[in-house]
Amino acid sequence: MAKGNLLYAQSGGVTAVINATASAVIQAARRHKVKVLAARNGILGALREELIDTSKESIGAIRALAHTPGGAFGSCRYKLKTLETDRAQYQRLIDVLRAHDVRWFLYNGGNDSADTAYKLSQLAAEFGYPLACIGVPKTVDNDLAVTDCCPGFPSAAKYTAVSVREAALDVAAMADTSTKVFVYEAMGRHAGWLAAASGMAGNGPDDAPQIILFPERTFDETAFLAKVKATVARVGWCVVVASEGVRDASGHFLSEGGTVDAFGHVQLGGVAPHLAEIVKNRLGMKVHWTVPGDRSRTRNGGRRSRR
Amino acid sequence: MAKGNLLYAQSGGVTAVINATASAVIQAARRHKVKVLAARNGILGALREELIDTSKESIGAIRALAHTPGGAFGSCRYKLKTLETDRAQYQRLIDVLRAHDVRWFLYNGGNDSADTAYKLSQLAAEFGYPLACIGVPKTVDNDLAVTDCCPGFPSAAKYTAVSVREAALDVAAMADTSTKVFVYEAMGRHAGWLAAASGMAGNGPDDAPQIILFPERTFDETAFLAKVKATVARVGWCVVVASEGVRDASGHFLSEGGTVDAFGHVQLGGVAPHLAEIVKNRLGMKVHWTVPGDRSRTRNGGRRSRR
């Protein structure tokens, strides 16, 4: 065996492929004769010294992990603060890593997780403890620093495009007597990658989605309604994909807007129901809408990454 | 060619397999050398004399139809009334059928469509016009008269079970620091078949879904909350599947309840957000929820059958 072990931990919302990353890490480490410990429920497992010895699992089980949904070792929503305010916790991490002879720490998450890994590497260097810290990218939003394509994004992108295409076929089949406009809310509060991915659903201006709204572009209600109206007149129906992070000219999220009080979208935080209400009220068209897989009432980061 | 043609029409919300039924009807008719006309946008196409001659399509195209999403010829939400009140429209149908030498009328839909086919057969007999009328079953709810298993139900049932299982894996992975309870709203306003199908997701009392709420059973809030609490204590998390048609002791839909005014569920008509609010307020647990693929603001039958 090589000198020292590797600790792997998952962080934040699990994606469709986070277990594939875990499987790859473990298989690669085995080839180098390095034992992999996995933290239970993310960084909390490291702090609590709840570590799973993956060397006890068969190679078949580790290979199967690549095709297993969910987060196999458990993940968590738990953010360490700065070294100054949270030094005791970073110190605790170093103590646990040292106790288990961990020389490699792989943290599978987003920008925050990469930052945590960086801070831990700083503290380890300060203590003269040899530790390689690596942030392993994961996110459906595709918005990680210095990462061109995040594991988690392609599967969510494909899901988005296929869902929009299938929904459009249903809308087209029913538009004569039923729904004329369909609004699909895509994830990505600050990045339009998933909304943009819906563009793969169509091949021309008459194919769905005829309208895509990005968080990077200011929402123009007049232009939006004009395009919906023109599309329905030309095609017979219209599919709109809206990023959850679409903002108005004042910089506010549409989902936080207060112009349509009766609807209750403030509690729900959905841009799709907001746009549906506008279309229904201004254009008098029947509208259906959908929001991401689940919707947390708390809105504090609660959402389902698997789509 | 046999004496006379066959008219096929689709009705109501399209399912994942309605085009498979269309493909089978056309292929079977071809074997008997009967030409199939398809009405554009359901019964409206027959009333408007907008008929598609499927004999112009290749056998390859007809076979591919079986695997094509949406409703290939268009469907509609349009219900003929009784023979007495709507006699002119039934008369018009007979006229169109006669003009195109239609001797078989296959209407692909639910109980209403079967009833329309029956009424048309009565009127045809009255006029001495030889016409075989057949209601071809279609619905995800699986609640058609004298039909054991409706085309559309199995695919929706599988989708429900797989979705609940996948969501449960995500919830389990995050429950330590995030969502403890997940509420999945299943379609089926008057029939619990799809809610029941979610039971395929698990193999024992600790697997999701730990709770299934049916429209056929009166909702007992006290018992519900006690079971959620006990499940979270024992398993660490709890998945609830609720039929959209769950009712309280007074016979009202939970989704129409007025006890949680601030939430706005009256407009949204969702039983899942209603239950989520109860769990959050009474048990103080973090809850996520999801509703069927789209949600019409009008609630007048508007929903997406493909799931």
What would your notes on this structure say?
The structure is a homodimer of 307-residue chains. Chain A has 307 residues and is of the alpha/beta class. Chain A folds into two domains: 5-137, Rossmann fold (3-Layer(aba) Sandwich); 153-290, Rossmann fold (3-Layer(aba) Sandwich). The first copy, chain A, is built from ten helices and ten strands. Chain A has helices spanning 18-31, 43-47, 59-65, 87-99, 111-127, 153-174, 193-197, 221-235, 265-268, 271-283, and strands at residues 5-10, 36-39, 51-53, 102-109, 132-137, 181-186, 211-213, 238-243, 287-290, 295-296. The first copy, chain A, has a five-stranded mixed beta sheet, sandwiched between helices. A four-stranded parallel beta sheet of chain A has the order 7-8-6-9, with helices on both faces. In chain A, β4, α5 (111-127) and β5 form a beta-alpha-beta unit. In chain A, α1 runs antiparallel to α3 (59-65) and α4 packs across α5 (111-127). Chain A is elongated. The two termini of chain A are 40 Å apart. The model of chain A is unreliable at 258-268 and 294-307 (pLDDT under 50). The interface between A and B is large, with 53 and 53 residues.
CA radius of gyration of chain A is 23 Å
What does the largest sheet of chain A look like?
A: 5 strands, mixed
Distance between the termini of chain A: 40 Å
Going across the biggest sheet of chain A, name each strand in turn: 3-2-1-4-5
Extended strand count of chain A: 10
Shape summary of chain A: elongated
Please mark out the parts of chain A with pLDDT under 50 across 5 or more consecutive residues, or reply none: 258-268, 294-307
